[in-house]
Design goal:
Blueprint (H helix, E strand, L loop, with lengths): L7 H18 L18 E3 L3 E2 L36 H5 L17 E11 L1 H12 L2 E3 L1 E3 L2 E2 L1 E5 L6 E5 L1 E2 L1 E3 L8 E3 L2 E11 L2 E15 L28 E13 L17 H46 L31 H26 L10 H12 L1 H14 L5 H7 L3 H19 L8 H28 L25 H28 L7 H28 L5 H10 L1 H16 L5 H38 L6
Parallel strand pairs: 12-14
Antiparallel strand pairs: 1-5, 2-4, 3-14, 4-9, 5-6, 7-8, 10-11, 12-13
């Protein structure tokens, strides 16, 4: 058969092209399916109320609120609401799932069922109206599926379910007019019959169509379209009475349980993903081929010339090496062979950063691979955050080992300080920043504030599991032999000549950092949209490829910069390679600020501080990650080229 005669390169290309599709084609659910019989109770849980894009397509807040916040006055179940158990990742991402008073029974339709009546005074009316204007959405869960709205993508002509639904609406005719508060909900639930078992029914879709209806008295005719909408009055000494109602409609669907999430996972413009991916791949391939060919030809010529020069000097004791055409005295990168492996400034800090960078590198790779294979299904809420915390904790061993091995190779002598700082410095910066930002959430009464008990759990994981693993890794790292340089280091450091403009620290960092950023720029936009606009991100196939392209780009451009640096007789390559590759994080932070100006309209100080703080935190972690990639690729390169020449 022809398929058996494909070249390995074609097989590899086919596999890579198929990767972006795996995130939907290969579905490994995070929970087992729940089957119901006709009449069985189907629980409806409520989640925290989060902001989404308002009618002007901008995000006006980053604060989320508990569903049963006293200002909302939503109806509560008998005996009060109770929390539903959640994973650590779900709590960190702001989920606060609780029970509700809604009664859903499988295949039993309900019409205009009354929940309760609430009264809104001036303060609560102002609070709710402001949340409506900011575009807040209610988030319900039925059998693990988010209740959403049925939308049409005008660009592709496809329909999809958007998780969450509006708390209220603003008058379309008068932007400065009143806000309408939704108090009636038409809940449409799609179910699927298990093959061969007619009495086994499974929920495969949930749609909520909210409406605003100002009922008068006991007349609860929710199908009457002539009922005026609810307007919460903000006048002093005035209370607005609101009656909450809901209807339930069950419809059979051909959608199987295993594919029920497909309608929620919508790509708004898939061509942008493919275009950006192909564009990045072409740039990376061109860059890698160029760097490889230039370095290979230049190094091959340099190494041959240096080794030939050494041979001539041995044969011709009179030193008339000019007899050999094209052979000159030492120049370029060989001149600094006695200084290139000299211990850099602040080796302790560099080794700590590199250990944490290696830890982040392995954690990110494993997380993306798990997500790519479908293990981090959106049906298992918070699984992404949970697996990241677990992997980062367990991989503390890798961080400790790498940090100790690097510090020993850099001739560091403060080994006790290295063992202590590796698990404390970078995680300490992250935790302190996270705790500081969490204070803003606590002060504003946001549901996104991580509870104090969860903070204690994180500290416990850090000190009981992460630090001992890091210390054990450091112990093995210091026992392992140091990475020996292929050449000896001179006692007296060589003077460094003035550098050209593009090899100075700031210009070289700006030039090197922009290329890895360009490889992930488009995917970064979709990730930020999913984080701040409460959308589901699932395109881990594209993310996997972008991550690989970013690694290759980061390594290639950093190696090229180090080669030019050594040719200019500058042997301070250790920190330069780390900072230049890490500069891509500076571009990410600048992109976040542009995103703040163009897509967000936060207004208040707290929202702006939270956005900038979390963006700076993510940029710092990316700085450690990419800086480590740049350093280790440069270290490998320097070891190779100086191990290929003969030194007297």
């Amino acid at each position: 058969m022809k398929s058996r005669t494909f070249a390995p390169s074609w097989a590899l290309c086919s596999a890579l092209l198929a990767l972006p599709q795996l995130s939907t084609a290969f579905y490994l659910p995070g929970v087992a399916p729940t089957s119901y019989k006709p009449g069985d109770k189907v629980p409806l849980y409520v989640n925290s109320i989060k902001p989404v894009a308002a009618q002007d397509a901008l995000l006006h807040s980053v604060m989320s609120y508990d569903y049963y916040n006293e200002q909302f006055r939503f109806c509560q179940p008998e005996g009060g609401p109770s929390y539903v158990s959640e994973s650590l990742g779900s709590i960190l991402f702001g989920d606060r799932i609780m029970t509700s008073p809604f009664e859903l029974n499988m295949m039993k339709n309900e019409t205009c069922k009354k929940l309760c009546t609430s009264k809104y005074d001036m303060q609560s009316a102002h609070f709710v109206n402001k949340r409506i204007m900011q575009g807040y959405a209610l988030n319900w869960l039925v059998d693990g599926l988010p209740a959403g709205q049925h939308l049409l993508d005008d660009l592709t002509g496809t329909t999809f379910y958007s998780p969450g639904f509006a708390m209220g609406t603003i008058s379309t005719t008068d932007p400065d007019g009143p806000t309408f508060f939704n108090n009636h909900y038409d809940i449409v639930i799609e179910y699927h019959k298990v093959s061969g078992k007619e009495d086994q029914l499974r929920v495969v879709g949930v749609i909520v169509q909210p409406a605003s209806k100002a009922y008068k008295g006991d007349n609860l005719d929710c199908n009457d379209n002539q009922i005026p909408p609810v307007v919460l009055a903000e006048d002093a000494n005035t209370e607005t009475e609101v009656t909450f109602t809901y209807s339930v409609y069950w419809t059979e669907s051909p959608t199987a349980w295993a594919t029920r999430w497909d309608k929620y996972l919508h790509v708004f413009d898939p061509k942008i993903h493919w275009f950006s991916l192909v564009n990045s791949a072409v740039v990376v391939i061109f860059l890698t081929v160029t760097v490889t060919s230039v370095l290979f030809r230049a190094l091959k010529k340099d190494i041959a010339r240096y080794n030939r020069l050494d041979q001539i000097n041995l044969d011709d004791l009179s030193g008339t090496s000019a007899l050999e055409d094209g052979v000159q005295e030492d120049s370029g990168w060989k001149l600094v062979h006695g200084d290139v492996f000299r211990t850099p400034s602040h080796p302790l800090l560099l080794s700590v950063f590199l250990g944490n960078g290696a830890q982040l590198f392995v954690m990110t790779g494993f997380t993306i691979c798990f997500a790519l294979l479908g293990f981090l299904s959106p049906s298992n809420r918070g699984s992404l955050g949970t697996i990241m915390i677990i992997l980062y904790t367990l991989l503390s061993f890798v961080g400790g080992y790498v940090s100790a091995r690097v510090y020993k190779s850099l001739n560091g002598d403060k080994w006790k300080l290295n063992i202590a700082l590796t698990p404390l410095l970078v995680p300490g910066i992250v935790f302190t920043t996270f705790f500081f930002l969490n204070l803003f959430l606590w002060a504003n009464g946001s549901a996104g504030a991580v509870p104090f008990t969860t903070m204690l759990v994180i500290i416990g994981i850090w000190f009981i599991i992460s630090i001992p693993l890091s210390v054990s890794g450091s112990w093995l790292g210091f026992r392992a032999p140091a990475v020996e340089p292929p050449v000896r280091t001179n006692q007296i450091p060589r003077q460094i000549p003035p550098a050209t403009t593009y090899l100075k620290p700031i210009p070289s960092m700006l030039l090197v950092g922009i290329l890895p950023f360009g490889a992930i720029f488009v995917e970064l936009y979709f990730i930020m949209s999913s984080i701040w606009f409460s959308k589901i991100y699932y395109m881990f196939g594209f993310l996997f490829l972008c991550y690989g392209l970013m690694i290759i780009t980061c390594a290639a451009v950093t190696v090229l910069m180090v080669y030019f640096l050594l040719c200019a007789e500058n042997y301070h390559w250790q920190w330069r390679s780390f900072l230049a590759a890490g500069m891509s994080a500076g571009y990410i932070f600048a992109n976040a600020l542009i995103y703040l100006i163009s897509k967000l309209s936060l207004g208040g100080l707290s929202g702006t501080v939270l956005y900038i703080g979390y963006s700076a935190l993510l940029s710092f972690l990316f700085f450690i990650l990419t800086g480590s990639i740049g350093f280790f690729s440069s270290w490998w390169f320097v070891q190779k080229i100086y191990g290929s020449i003969k030194i007297d």
